[in-house]
């Protein structure tokens, strides 16, 4: 009994010492927490605060009654979406657009970074980087406008096609071209900017490693494979996990701006559907349910991809 009391007192004393140590640490480094506070407050207000509104997905929301006064209906709106005739089409369109975009777009920034890393003249490298990064700063509205002009029946692309075949191609009106136009234009605008993180990582590679490998007879591809790629592999894993976790979060603006009455079979995705039924049709509860369904799928994909990547990448993942 006496030993138990002594052990209990020792445990309480250790806990008290730990609390005191924590307070001393806070007092000593309070400036860091003061600097952290604005970001933390903004995150709580604008990220976690709005999550309360997701409860309308389980209610028949009425702006007059408010969130608390609206009738609770459970999973009624989720059942409505899952049983709707458009569910399979919209879900497959979203998954295909995201998955194809990830598979085709993920390697491009890596290849650009590896090529830029081989440019030795600083002035030339800076000019190339400026050319590659510039499209990222063009507005989505301008990008879509450029696509409509370039791919119109009288645009420069169709002028070449008419010269070669005699007939123009209606790129923006045919559903089968929508995904390719969307994905390739995304790669054009974002690949250069996405390569920055890999370029920064490759800048930390010791040049002596390349010199030593060259003396041992390694060619360029062998040096890239055994020196450069292992350096950026952890970053590649994290970027891939984040991209795969957001596979359902396609940009709404571009897809909506590129939509026409003729390409809806492939261009109608979850974000555009939520906009139409929520803001245009005013069915807030149903649109909230669809949006929440989309977010849950994203979280599940993030967890799944992280587990897979950790197994394939020697235990290195997002967490």
TrEMBL record:
Q: Which PANTHER family match?
A: BLL4140 PROTEIN
Superkingdom of origin organism? Bacteria
PROSITE patterns to which the protein is assigned, alphabetical: ABC_TM1
Look up and give the membrane topology term.
Multi-pass membrane protein
Against Pfam families, the record matches this protein to:
BPD_transp_1 (PF00528)
Where, by residue number, does the polypeptide cross the bilayer? Answer: 30-49, 97-116, 128-151, 180-201, 232-252, 284-309
| Protein family per UniProt | Belongs to the binding-protein-dependent transport system permease family.
Q: What is this protein called?
A: ABC transporter permease
The record's InterPro entries line, in alphabetical order, gives: MetI-like, MetI-like_sf, UgpAE/MalFG_permease
Q: Which ranges form a coiled coil?
A: none
Q: Where in the cell is it found?
A: Cell membrane
Keywords, alphabetical: Cell membrane, Membrane, Transmembrane, Transmembrane helix, Transport
| Entry keyword annotation includes Membrane | yes
- Presence of the UniProt keyword Membrane in the record: yes
**Domain called ABC transmembrane type-1: residue spans:** 91-305
